[in-house]
Each structure stands twice: as structure tokens, then as C-alpha cells.
Amino acid sequence: MMRNFVNPMRATRIFLMLILLTAVNFSLHAQQDRARAEEFAREMEQARKAALMRELDSGVYYMDNGEYKKADEIFRHVLATVKSVPSDLTYYFGKNSFHLGLYKQSIDWLNKYIQLKGTNGQYSQEAIQWKKQAENEFLKEKENEASKAQQILSQNYDIDCGPSGKVVCPACKGDHVIIRRGAFGDEYKTCPYCNEQGILTCQEYNLLLRGKLQPRNQ
């Protein structure tokens, strides 16, 4: 009687091939799962940002229609929710703060918009005008020793510097040189914060706002 004889080496190769195919198939499924999870995360983040932008637009609507307290509530909620503050929000919040009589807060946020956008931003000219008005009203307040509580200042937030991720250094205004008036004339000193082009990265800019940016090695 003949017995079927299986070559043990051939059986081993078949077994190893099955293991390899199983591993490859598992790896492909794992990659597909990761890709789907990443795509889902991106979609959720985009949906979250879209919802915040709609909320921001509603705040602008209330501000434009004179409902400044309602607009303030919305802008504060957006500030508490976003990871990085959109540059347009610095303008909206600054303008709305003026209408609420929060002049120091208004100056602070409008100044951030001007620093980020310079004179070429969509709202640059309006921001400059509102900032001047806020400064005048703030001076009147100081003369009357008035105080405002619970004002939100921008150094408590990370400001989004835009696609370039860079901003003109507010310490030297992009000149890379700080000029100080001394007893014997003007004194010139290299700006200790920015690069040779007078530029800060967004991270450096936000650290400077908080007074935590360490001077570069001179």
C-alpha cells in the first residue's frame, strides 16, 4: 500500500509563505485603517474650523448691527475654543471692545492686527482709526482714574501670524536696530530679538508678547 509522502522542506516553505501573506495582509489593513483614521481626523478638524468661522461670522453680524454685548460673548467663546487666534479676530475683537468702552483691551487687540498685517491688511486702515480713537478715550479714562475689570489681553493667547508664519518685529519695527534717546544724542543698539531682516517667527512673536522671549546671542 502506497503512502502519500510530503516533502518536509516544501511544507515548511508553504507554511512560511502563508505566514508572510497573512502578515502582509494584516499590514495593509492596518495602513488602510490608519489612513481612514487620519482622514476622519482631518475632516473633523475642518468641520470644527468651519463651525468656528460660522460662529465668528455671527459675531461680526451682531457687532455690525450694534449688539456689542452679544458679539462680545461670541468672540470670547471663539477665543476660548481656537488653538490659534485668526488675525481677523484680533481686529473684530478690538473694534467691538471699543464700542463696549474697553479701551485698553481695544488698543491691545487692534495693535496686534496692525503688527501682523501692516498697512496692507484688509482692515488695516480701519484698525488704525479705531486704535487712535481708543487711545484718545483711554487717555480720558486715565485722567478720570477710571478702571475696567476683566479685560482680555492678547498676550494670553497664541496669535496666528498667517501662512508665512513670520511677523515684523514690534520691538524694532523691522529695522533690526533700536534707537533710544540719550543725554548725548541718539543711541543705536542692535535688536536682541529678531533676525537681521527684522523678522520674528510666529513662536518668537508670541513669546515676545508674553515677555518670555530670550535675547539672541549678541
Structural write-up:
- This protein is mainly alpha-helical and 218 residues long.
- Helices cover 58% and strands 8% of the residues.
- The strands form 2 sheets. A two-stranded antiparallel sheet has the order 1-4.
- Helix 4 (103-117) runs antiparallel to helix 5.
Q: Describe the sheet with the most strands.
A: 2 strands, antiparallel
Please trace the helix and strand order, writing H or E for each element.
HHHHHEEEEH
Question: How many E-type strands?
Answer: 4
* SS strand fraction: 5-15%
**Straight-line distance between termini:** 95 Å
Uncertain stretches: none
Radius of gyration: 29 Å
Question: Which geometry do the CA atoms define?
Answer: elongated
Number of helices: 6
Q: Structural class of the secondary structure composition? A: mainly alpha
The helix fraction, in percent, is: 55-70%
Strand order of the largest sheet: 1-4
**How confident overall, as mean pLDDT?**
83
